[in-house]
Structure formats: structure tokens, C-alpha cells
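User: Could you go from structure to sequence for me? I need the amino acid at each position, not a summary. C-alpha cells:
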């Protein structure tokens, strides 16, 4: 059994993917080729953002967004401690300080009620993470940011395709950043990412920054990075976009089936009524995670833990002086979450097998 079955997806999309990739091989424009521009146009239209800037990874998307905003030494960026390391890593790489705010236990997203108290005169941005495919409370976050004259960067690495009050993830704030890592709901065959914005000046800055700070060849207006997307990755994404909406429906059907099979057995994920989820992961909470992980592995069922340690407890952030107990909801989630296989080609019999294995291994049924 595959945790994410990219091979099944490729078998379904093989003619389109092969044709798209062959076109790149034929024209030979491997960097900033026409497929990259087409992808940007398609994704901008999909999200409603005025600009999409394709780049080399979701991590670099976060970096480009903060560089365009001029975030650097001495600045602070508010984010959640329960997310992939890159969120806080890129803040720190620029010399800024990640300021953590605890999460909601129900959604695992940043707790908006705690954000205002974390703002200081050095705060330059709030970076909510749309974890597991569901957007955070973006309207409330944007309202706080507007009052305090700071930017909002949505870390939408896991949520492209999700809706928040009818509006697409990625186009909910000053800048939205997403990832096309292969395991994402829309993933390429390597690293890739994108930034979205409707601010013309920020878009121009990010386009220059991703290409060594050039506004034209060999004319550098700023210090940038090599953050360009490979054309062949754009070609893969264009092929996958053809079935993206169908796959999102399949993911939601799978999530609904999981919820029915596991209701009353484990704590299953909750999606707020005013938004949708793209189920980048299907994550449950359990008391005896290690035992469940081992029991499922013995039956050939893969699992993953996203994420096993809250960021403020990572050794590299020891200098922040945040001890265990600083963010209890994030720390609790890190000890209890486990992700089950999730992809559009997951069959009902496979899901029943997974559910039976989970039921047999839980120490005590719970409900969230």
C-alpha cells in the first residue's frame, strides 16, 4: 500500500504528462520556458490573484515573499509552532525572529485570539499556515494586520485548491505561498513552488528576486537568489492541472469515508463550516501513537507524523528561550498526531483495511 500513490496518478495521466515533458525536450528552454509562463497564467486565473510567480520550491516561495517585503535583521514574524520547519527556517535565515503563537486544538491552525498579544513594534508580518489543507482564520488575521499596518503571508504549501468563504487559498492576503513538492495535492516531479499577490510592486520584486535580482539580463537592481522553476516541472504541473478538480473531489470523498469509518474511534480532523480542505494529509489524533504506527506497519500500512516536535523545541531554536509548556496545544498535537494514507486513488477496500487496523490498535476510543 502506498502512503501517496504517485504511480497510480502517473498511469492515469501518462499520455498528457509525457506529451508535455516531450515538448520541453523539443524546444530546450529548460529555465523560464513557455510552460512556466502558461502555468503562472493558469494559476493566477484559478486563484484570482493578479500575479503568480512560479519558483523553485515552497520554501523559496516563503523566502521570496519576505525578501520582497524587506524583512530582515531585527524584524519579527508571527507564525505557528506546529508546522514544517521551513516556515520558521526562512524567517530565521533572513535574520528575523520567529514569534510563535499557539494553535487551535480543533484545526491545528494558528489561534487568532492569541495573535494580537504577540505583536510588538518589530513585527513586520503574520505568517499563518493553512495546515493539512485547511485555511486558517484569514479574515480575522487580515483585520489584525490592517489595524497594525503589517503584512500577511499565507503559508499555503498544503492548501492550494482550498476555499475560505468562497475565496481561493493563495489569494487571501498580501502574499500567498504554495509548494509543488511531489506529495502535495498538486505536485510536480521535483521541487517547485509559487507566490501569489495582487500587488504589482511586490510581484515585480519577487520576479526579480527569483532570478538573481535582475530586471533584465545582466542588470541587477537588488540581491536575489536562484529561485526559478524548471520548465519541465511546470510542464508536469500543467498536465496535472487537467484533473486537479476531479482529484480534489476524490480526496474529499476519501476524507468523508475515513470520518465515517473512524468516528468515535479516534479524534478525526475538523473542517470549519465556512471553508473547504484539500486534505494534503488525513491526520488523526491518538493516545498510543507509537503502538498504532507499529501495528499498521506490521500490516503493510504506511503512516507518517506531521510533525513530531513543535518548532520552539527544535535544538536550533533553543536561543529563543521557549521551554516545553510554552505552547501546550502545539506540543500536545506533536505527541498525538498521525497521518494515514491519503490520495485521490485510495480505494474503499483499502480504506476499510486501514480503518480496521486503526480500530484494532487504539488503546481507548475517543472523539474530538
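Assistant: Here is the amino acid at each position, in order:
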Amino acid at each position: 500500500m502506498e502512503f501517496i500513490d504517485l504511480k497510480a496518478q502517473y498511469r492515469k495521466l501518462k499520455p498528457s504528462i509525457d506529451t508535455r515533458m516531450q515538448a520541453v525536450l523539443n524546444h530546450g528552454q529548460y529555465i523560464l520556458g513557455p510552460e512556466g509562463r502558461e502555468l503562472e497564467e493558469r494559476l493566477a486565473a484559478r486563484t484570482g490573484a493578479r500575479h503568480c510567480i512560479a519558483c523553485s520550491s515552497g520554501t523559496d516561495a516563503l523566502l521570496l515573499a519576505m525578501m520582497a517585503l524587506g524583512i530582515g535583521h531585527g524584524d519579527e514574524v508571527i507564525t505557528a509552532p506546529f508546522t514544517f520547519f521551513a516556515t520558521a527556517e526562512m524567517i530565521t535565515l533572513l535574520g528575523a525572529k520567529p514569534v510563535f503563537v499557539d494553535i487551535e486544538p480543533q484545526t491545528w491552525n494558528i489561534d487568532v485570539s492569541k495573535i494580537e498579544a504577540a505583536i510588538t513594534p518589530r513585527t513586520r508580518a503574520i505568517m499563518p499556515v493553512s495546515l493539512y489543507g485547511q485555511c486558517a482564520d484569514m479574515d480575522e488575521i487580515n483585520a489584525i494586520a490592517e489595524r497594525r499596518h503589517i503584512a500577511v503571508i499565507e503559508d499555503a504549501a498544503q492548501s492550494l485548491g482550498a476555499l475560505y468563504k468562497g475565496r481561493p487559498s493563495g489569494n487571501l492576503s498580501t502574499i500567498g505561498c504554495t509548494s509543488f513538492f511531489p506529495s502535495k495535492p498538486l505536485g510536480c516531479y521535483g521541487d517547485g513552488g509559487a507566490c501569489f499577490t495582487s500587488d504589482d510592486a511586490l510581484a515585480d520584486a519577487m520576479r526579480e528576486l527569483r532570478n538573481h535580482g535582475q530586471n533584465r539580463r545582466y542588470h541587477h537592481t537588488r540581491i536575489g537568489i536562484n529561485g526559478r522553476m524548471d520548465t519541465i516541472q511546470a510542464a508536469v504541473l500543467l498536465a496535472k492541472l487537467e484533473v486537479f478538480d476531479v482529484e480534489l473531489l476524490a480526496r474529499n470523498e476519501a476524507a468523508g469515508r475515513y470520518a465515517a469509518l473512524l468516528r468515535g474511534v479516534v479524534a478525526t480532523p475538523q473542517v470549519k463550516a465556512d471553508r473547504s480542505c484539500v486534505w494534503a494529509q488525513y491526520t488523526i489524533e491518538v493516545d498510543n501513537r507509537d503502538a498504532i504506527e507499529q501495528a499498521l506497519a506490521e500490516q503493510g500500512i504506511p503512516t507518517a507524523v506531521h510533525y513530531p516536535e513543535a518548532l520552539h523545541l527544535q535544538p536550533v531554536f533553543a536561543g529563543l528561550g521557549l521551554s516545553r509548556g510554552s505552547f501546550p496545544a502545539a506540543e500536545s498535537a506533536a505527541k498525538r498526531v498521525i497521518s494515514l494514507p491519503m490520495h485521490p486513488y485510495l480505494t474503499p477496500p483499502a480504506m476499510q483495511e486501514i480503518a480496521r487496523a486503526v480500530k484494532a490498535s487504539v488503546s481507548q476510543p475517543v472523539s474530538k
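One structural detail worth keeping in mind: The CA atoms of residues 164 and 275 lie 4 Å apart.
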